[in-house]
Design goal:
mainly beta; 7-stranded mixed beta sheet; 0% helix; 114 residues
Amino acid sequence: QVQLVESGGGLVQPGGSLRLSCAASGSIFRLHVWSWYRQAPGKQRELVASTTDDGITNYADPVKGRFTISKGSAANTVYLQMNELKPEDTAIYYCGLFALQEYWGQGTQVTVSS
């Protein structure tokens, strides 16, 4: 049973940066998709960014040019570098790993406020 552990959330001022991390236990299946989702109070979960096993990345329009998704060398860790943060980015961020099965992190709170 694969488990994902997230870290890196916190409180940051508008314009600041945070880097989220998500680590899977052990190595992962070769064919996979890593994704970051977020959910703000009263809103539906939305996809933020994703990266495939062959390195194809996709970003939601609101975060393009500000967020970067990347993977560790063993592909068992995924990162989300968040720059130029805005109050609208405030949400709980969840990492997801999608392969033969679907795995989710526990969520980490990101709050952007002055």
